[in-house]
Amino acid sequence: MDPGAGLSSRPDNPEVALPALYERLHAYWGNLGWWPAESPFEVIVGAILTQNTAWQNVEKAVTALKREAVLSPARIRDLSEDRLAEWIRPAGYYRLKARRIKAFIRFLYERYAGNLDRMFAQPTERLREALLSVNGIGPETADSILLYAGEKPVFVVDAYTKRILCRHGMIPEDADYPTLQGLFMRYLPAEAPLFNQYHALLVHTGKTFCRKKPLCAGCPLEPLVGPGEAR
After folding, report:
1. Is 40's pLDDT higher than 80?
2. What is the mean pLDDT of the chain?
3. 223 pLDDT band (50/70/90 cuts)?
4. Among 149, 179, 201, where does a domain finish?
5. Domain span including residue 82
6. CATH code at 186?
7. Do 173 and 190 contact (CB within 8 A), yes or no?
8. Are both 14 and 90 inside the same structural domain?
9. CA dist., res. 136 & res. 104, Å (int)
10. Which of 105, 132, 149 is the last residue of a domain?
């Protein structure tokens, strides 16, 4: 597929625009292999730790948990919240995040006997609703767990996604999470590997080019910026 195909109809035809956006980003970045984790449980812990912090800080916290050999549901269940908080201190808001991780562990044991396979065997929508009932797990965290740990075809939306699509005239500034997510899930094939890679591409592009103060020069999406759109 030509990465530039369909760009003239970009704002009006997401069925054409979203695949074109993907092809252009994929041609630039290649396969990103996200999420970097050794197990589904590590993804889940990382999804909670990454709230309001940089990924480098999450890596430090996860490394500490691995060093202490406690990165498993059973080991974290047996930890005190205070001890867990100390080990994840590099991730910031460490007491709050320790409380949230412990809340997920209680949820996992109360509903699924501590078994992640049993949890992910649930219908996706039902599991998403259940995850959202856990203290500290919002839509982005729940969807990250579903997509990256459970390999469910659920698109993850974050600030980078909204910023990029807004600056390219594809969504209004006040578009909410369900609207953004629905755009991707309606107009793209419901495939977890595609959603995984697409979200990773948007994150990398947002961090590198589409910052709060955009660096459009050299961005793979620069040719898509129309008259009057952010540069």
Report:
1. yes
2. 92
3. confident
4. 149
5. 40-149
6. 1.10.1670.10
7. no
8. no
9. 9
10. 149
- Same domain, residue pair 53 and 142: yes
pLDDT at 5: 38
The DSSP code sequence of the chain is: --TTTTGGGTTT-HHHHHHHHHHHHHHHH-----S--SSHHHHHHHHHHTTTS-HHHHHHHHHHHHHTT--SHHHHHHS-HHHHHHHTGGGSSHHHHHHHHHHHHHHHHHHHTT-HHHHHTS-HHHHHHHHHTSTT--HHHHHHIIIIIT--------HHHHHHHHHTTSS-TT--HHHHHHHHHHHS---HHHHHHHHHHHHHHHHHTSSSS---TT-TTGGG--TTS--
Contacts for 195 with CB less than 8 Å, ≥ 6 apart: 147, 153, 154, 155, 156, 184, 188
Rounded CA-CA distance 75/189 in Å is 38
- Specify the pLDDT at position 55: 94
- Rounded to 10 degrees, the C-alpha dihedral 157/44/194/185 comes to -40
Q: For residue 140, tell me if it sits in a domain.
A: yes
* pLDDT above 70: percentage of residues in the chain: 92
Token code pair at residue 100: 């949230």
Preceding omega of 35 cis (within 30 degrees of 0): yes
- In the block, residue with structure tokens 């995850």: 131
Rg over alpha carbons for the chain, rounded to the nearest Å, is 19
In this prediction the pTM is 0.91
